[in-house]
User: Fold this.
Amino acid sequence: GDPEQELRKFVDMAAKAEDLGARSLLAMSKIAAATSCRRLAFHCLKQYLCGLVSGGVLDYKQALPAYREMLSLNSCKNDSLPIFEGILNILGGSGNSKEEVKWLLATARETGA
Assistant:
C-alpha cells in the first residue's frame, strides 16, 4: 500500500501505546518533517496534542511548541485558522506568557491568518 498511509497507521498505534509516550510522537514529527513528509509530521503533532488533551489539564508549555511546529509545516494560510484557534484556546487561560501572545500575533500577521 501507500507508504505514507502505512506510516500514519503506525503513528496512530504509537499514539495509543503508553510505553512510547508523547516524546516519541514529537521525535517522529521531526523525522517526518526533515524527510519532507509534511503531512505525516502534521499528523504526528495532531496525535501528540490529542494525547495532551486526553490527559486532562493542558499544559500550554507542552502544547504551544507543537502548535508552532504545525504552523511552520502548514503551507496554506487558509488551513492555519484552526491552528490559531487552538492556540487562542490555550492562551485563554490565566497565567500565560505575554511573550506567547506576542508570538501568536506576529505569526498571525506574517501568515495573513
